[in-house]
Design goal:
The protein has a single domain, classed as Beta Polymerase, domain 2 (2-Layer Sandwich). It is built from 4 helices and 7 strands, in the order H-E-E-H-E-E-E-E-H-E-H. The strands form 2 sheets. Strands 1-2-5-4-3 form a 5-stranded mixed sheet. A two-stranded parallel ribbon has the order 6-7. The N and C termini lie far apart (57 Å).
Amino acid sequence: MTEKIDLIKWLASLGIKAETAKNGIISLFVEKGQFMPVIQSLYTSGFDYLATITAVDLMDNRCELIYNLYSFESNQRIFLRVELSYDEKMPTVLELWPNARFYEREIYEMFGVEFTGNPDYKRPFIFEGNDPVRLEFPMRKSFDSIKFSLENYGERDYGGRKKG
């Protein structure tokens, strides 16, 4: 499956919605239940490099995870996208890509998405000194960054410059 058109036909045969951007990058939109079979198929089809995993807060207690996969063999990039609620857990992809440990841990701390099978949730990861018991996820749109800053760092003096 080195041709992009062959990949799209193959995905369509599985009932996977695929879009190709002007730059040629394919975005796949999968349901959570399809996620593991599709990502494992992509891995065995040559998408053996996980460039990153990121998340987008969609509001209403939902987010979208975006897996950025690359095939060196065919010089192709794919974004695998899956929507889920913050109450749902995602399976880890550590067995396919060990570097997923960092991305999954960061997404957990920033968005609150849990990955089943990932043993590394020691907090805090990003905010050193933050109380690890407090479950505040700073990348959610509902996060109040001003309130957080005032509670954790207080008012600051910026050398005589006026605040605000």
